[in-house]
Design a protein that fits this description.
Largest sheet: none
Helix content: 40-55%
Structural class: mainly alpha
Distance between the termini: 36 Å
Strand content: under 5%
Number of helices: 12
Radius of gyration: 19 Å
Number of domains: 2
Shape: globular
Amino acid sequence: MDMIKEFFNFIEKRHQIYLNRQAGMPFPWTEDEILQTYSFCNVFRELDTVTIWLRENWREPYADHPNLPFAMAMARQINWPDTLEEIGFPEQWNPEHVKNVMFARQLKKEKVYTGAYMLTGTLGGPKIEQTIDKILTPLYEDPPEIHHNSLQNTWAEYLRYKGFAKFISYEVVTDLRHTKHLNKAEDIMTWANAGPGAKRGLNRIFGRDLNQPIHVKNSTEEMLDLLHYSCGYLDPETMPPLEMRDIEHCLCEFDKYQRTKLNQGRPRAKYHRPV
């Protein structure tokens, strides 16, 4: 099986797990032993647990609120629904309230932040105070410009702020893509920020050394090629159409899958079978 076909085969198998589970079928939802054993993100980020919570509790109920872009940035810095629910949607920015909630959870040894990805920790002082005083408050006081016709240009705006490196800025912009602020952006189908895992995925598919550097222009062109190929490889009856973000996201998961398959390493998280 050529690597392009294998990439789309992985996408179909991972999404079929979601469909089988939603249909109430018993575990396992796949015959693939790697997908049975290890945790892989959904093909579509909108189906992930934190994103579902954000959509249902903040993004849609407060769709017209002027603080929605800030709320998405705050949400991705914390990325833990229980903490966000206790804080509440920031209709007005009250940093002392937010810190009080977070410190109280910490004292009770309750989870405050996500464990899904690395966040801030290099700006000096306790992490909670960093997040609120050095990252979110400056963002609220001097918000970035939202370029309604461009995901990429909006992403570049967030990069100017402390605590918003490429990955976290990309997460915020991806949330805003599903709001009135960026849902008509002209580059939804032509741009994505290729992270390290996606670049390794591209190197695997196109037969290069795994750690070979890729110029941004080349990674964008190759992701766009894969997006075009998807129409010929994926069944439209079971697979909704992909966007560039989905290609980038799946490349990272595909790299994890291939590492496991080829005994080059293992994903950090095992899948916990439902009781």
